[in-house]
From TrEMBL:
Gene, per the UniProt record: gmk
NCBIfam families: guanyl_kin (TIGR03263)
Protein name: Guanylate kinase
Compartmental location: Cytoplasm
Main EC class the enzyme belongs to: transferase
Family statement: Belongs to the guanylate kinase family.
Functional description taken from the UniProt entry: Essential for recycling GMP and indirectly, cGMP.
Database matches in PANTHER family: GUANYLATE KINASE, GUANYLATE KINASE-RELATED
PROSITE patterns to which the protein is assigned, alphabetical: GUANYLATE_KINASE_1, GUANYLATE_KINASE_2
Amino acid sequence: MVSERGLLIVLSGPSGVGKGTVRKALFSQPDINLQYSISVTTRKPREGEVDGVDYFFKTREEFEQMIRENKLLEWAEYVGNYYGTPIDYVEKTLQEGKDVFLEIEVQGALQVRKVFPEGLFIFLAPPSLSELRKRIEMRGTESEELIRDRLRAAREELEMMDAYDYVVENDRVELACERIKAIVMAEHCRRERVACRYKKMLEVE
Ligand SMILES: Nc1ncnc2c1ncn2[C@@H]1O[C@H](COP(=O)(O)OP(=O)(O)OP(=O)(O)O)[C@@H](O)[C@H]1O
Ligand SMILES: Nc1nc2c(ncn2[C@@H]2O[C@H](COP(=O)(O)O)[C@@H](O)[C@H]2O)c(=O)[nH]1
C-alpha cells in the first residue's frame, strides 16, 4: 500500500556546528511546514531555556523510567547527560501525515536510522574544525572541560557523516536553511513520483 505518512527528517552533526541555530532559523520562516519534536534531557536548563519549549527537563530517575517503559524512539548519553526523543509524538504526528523534524546528536541519529530507514538523514558540517571550536567557545555556555569533551566527541562524530543521506555545510545560516529546504522538497517530489508509479502499476494489474 502507498503510505501517506509524513516524512521523518533528522538533522544531526557535532556539538556547536549550529544545529539549533539553523533549526530555529528554519522554523521562523513562514512557508515551513515541519513539526519539531521536543527532546527529553537530564541536562540542566541554560539561561533562557524553557521546559516544554527547548526540552522537557527530567531527572535521571525520570529519564531511566522512560527508557524502561519504552517511551523513547532513541536515546543517548552524551557528555554526561541523557538525551532522548519521545516516541509517541513522532508516531502520532507522522501518522497524521505531517513531517517531523528531529535535531539530535550522532549516536541517536544512527539508532533512528535502524527504526526508520525511510527517514531523511542530514548531517550539518562545519566549514572547518577550527571554526567549530570557535563556535562552541563563542557560545559561552560550557566550561573549558565540557568544551574539550564536546570537541573530542565532535572528531568521532565527523567520521560518521558518510552514514547520512546528505551533508550540508553550515557556512552561513541562511544558506544552510535554503539547502535543507531544497533537500526536503526534492525528497517529497521523489516520494510522490515513486507513489505515482506504484499506483499506476496497481491499476495495470
Ligand atoms: N553559520 C554560522 N556562522 C557563524 N556562527 C554560527 C553559525 N551557525 C551557528 N553559529 C553559532 O555557533 C554557536 C553554536 O551554535 P548552536 O548552539 O546552534 O550549535 P548546536 O549544533 O546546536 O550545538 P549543540 O549540539 O551543542 O547544542 C552559536 O553561538 C551560534 O550563534
Ligand atoms: N540522541 C539525542 N540527542 C539529542 C536529543 N536532543 C538534543 N540532542 C543533542 O544533544 C547534544 C547536546 O545538546 P545541548 O542542548 O546540551 O547542547 C546536541 O548535539 C543535540 O543535538 C535527543 O533527543 N536525542
